[in-house]
Design brief:
The chain has a single domain, classed as AF1782-like (Substrate Binding Domain Of Dnak, Chain:A, Domain 2, Up-down Bundle), CATH 1.20.1270. The protein has 3 helices and no strands. By secondary structure, it is mainly alpha-helical. Helix 2 (41-66) runs antiparallel to helix 3.
């Protein structure tokens, strides 16, 4: 991937998309922690660590982009998105399981 204007714009767009998505995932994680009577503290800590890793990959993406290394920048932001997607799916499953058990969840 060369440092063309199109590639740079695509990476910048992906970074903006990540910034919009991370707040949603963090909110889902906070709701899971607050609403689940069976929350496993270790499990929540691990999910928060994955969220922090996603933030770090996002930051790395921006740093590599500033240095003109678009290949590594794109890899980093793609990985960050993958981590968020994984967390989102895990948390959606938790919400579904809690509803199946008849527990009411707060809506924000």
């Amino acid at each position: 991937m060369a440092g063309s204007k199109d590639v740079i714009e695509r990476i910048q767009k992906d970074i903006r998309m990540f910034d919009g998505s991370i707040d949603t995932v963090e909110s889902m994680l906070n709701s899971e922690q607050e609403n689940s009577a069976q929350t496993n503290g270790t499990r929540i800590r691990r999910m928060r660590r994955i969220l922090e890793l996603a933030r770090m990959y996002r930051s790395d993406s921006e740093s590599f982009l500033d240095k003109g290394d678009t290949d590594t920048s794109f890899s980093c932001i793609s990985y960050a998105h993958g981590l968020l997607d994984s967390l989102r799916e895990l948390l959606k499953g938790d919400v579904f399981e809690n509803r199946e058990e008849g527990k009411e969840l707060k809506k924000e």
